[in-house]
Design goal:
77 residues, mainly alpha, Cytochrome C Oxidase, Chain I, 3 helices
């Protein structure tokens, strides 16, 4: 009597069906995370570096560090 009340579980191709669902889900989740990282972190970081190096003068920075006594081989003037 109790077997008539419960439907039989689908056992055939259960793993394949669940794996297909989870593979698609994992693929779209990873693509979404990659897009969020690229446009949320990598692109702003590249723009910040480009902006910094647009007006960066390495000789001026070297002279400032040299005057501060950072380098042992180049004593302050």
């Amino acid at each position: 009597m109790s077997s008539a009340l419960l439907p039989k579980p689908q056992m055939r191709r259960l793993l394949a069906r669940r794996m297909k669902f989870h593979l698609f889900g994992a693929f779209f989740l990873s693509v979404g995370c990659a897009a969020l990282y690229k446009f949320g972190i990598a692109e702003p970081r590249k723009r910040a570096y480009a902006e910094f190096y647009k007006n960066y003068d390495p000789m001026k920075d070297f002279e400032a560090m040299r005057a501060a006594g950072v380098f042992e081989s180049a004593p302050p003037k």
